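Priority: low. Protein: Protein croquemort. Input follows.
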Amino acid sequence: MMVTSAFSCTASAVLGGCGLLLICLWSVIFDNFMTLRNNSLIYRYWKSEPLDIHADFYFFNWTNPEDFYDLSVKPKFEEVGPYSFLQKIEKTNITWNDNDTVTFQQKKFWIFQKQKGGVHLKDPIVTLNPIPLITSYLLRDWNYYTRRVISMTLSTFFGEHHMTQTVESLLFKGYYEPLMKIAAATPMLSQYDLPNWEGFGYFYDRNGTYEFEGTLNMGIGKNADFGYIHFWNYQNKSRYFDDACGDVRGSAEYYFPKNLKKNILKYFMPDMAGSTNLTFEKEESVSSILGYKYVIGEKTLDNGTNYPENRCLCSGECVPSGTINMTRLRHSLPVFVSLPHFYKADPYYINLVDGLEPNKSKHDFYVIVEPTTGIPLKGNMALQANLLVQPVSGLTMFENAPKFFCPIWWACYSFEVQGFLVLLVTLLVNLHFKFPTKILGFNMADASACIIKCFSFSSMYVADDSLLVTGVREEPGSGSLECVLQRSLEAAM
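Result:
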């Protein structure tokens, strides 16, 4: 009995000593756990995105293209969709650097969810013909007689100002367009960096490739913030915007720094070739986990109209607040990005067309992030592509055209943590906040045992790739990651 008692006292003393040590080292342990390293728990989460990212595309069907030249009639559109895809992201060509950053490329895959909502990729869409529009935009400042000659020469290729194409052709598959090859091979147009494509589609040649995303360099969370982008294509400035608007900085997609504040969150988007400011809106819980909600505010979409410091976003012609000119990035196609249905934009835009109805709950761009770990809990990332139509003298098709921003499509990338990710985030938050409190309590030995048990449960599964990609082992039962995290969480509580 005395031996048992002595052993218990010794064990309690040892565990108590561990608890005192953990008080001093706790922040170091937590930061180490949240640092990206090869074969670490967070690395498996980062390399193959475990979130189910739903990409819903909506198209604007043009219902009165025959009235294009009647300036008394507004262009009218009706929304069609959603066309739902599951997006998967895979990191490739990963290089670890000595300055606590990692350089990588990422492939994105869009997998169609068949006939969800009664729609199909073969659905026809009446929309603006983008190829003549590109030509009119490129030639708008050329000599009038040059424009007239080119207009007459290419009139047989142009077709009409509108066209009918299937959804799949407008997105990833593309449709045959001979003018693409002709334009790319024309010396007079070489300065415009036109793509040498045989066809055209708004996401043409992007499914399963990484060329468009470029090469990213981000911090691993040690001496550089985890998820913070330092370089894009080996540059810290984007060539598509001037001055501070071209700075490459901010968090990468779906990865944010730890210990967030209730202010501005910088977010780097390769699709927009620049950084976007997300503004703190409020606290909001997701699956009982407290998060900070950040949204795209009106200032983010301003191009100097209301906030002079944003004038570098004009990138050419300045237009009313609410759209960002992406023409340089989109191979001279006059694309202006906004929130869906011109939500939060100047009324100027929506007053030029009929059929659009902005709605905050559906059309807002937001992300909810757990502030301690920087792990995203929920997101609704919605943006709309619009093409600028304007009269250009000397070009028959557009000489008498109205000026308006034609809505083409909008997409919403949404996600919400579920299953084992909820348990993982809850566990990490409890590790950070509740374990130190337990250690400082009266039962220090028990608290220390919980810590050791919790780390044992979690670390024994780090080496299994399938757990973090699928959330379960091949064999069912108590060995699944979800069960392990649940037991670890119970220990933490």
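Residues 2-33 form the longest helix (32 residues). The chain has two domains: 21-46+422-492, 53-416.
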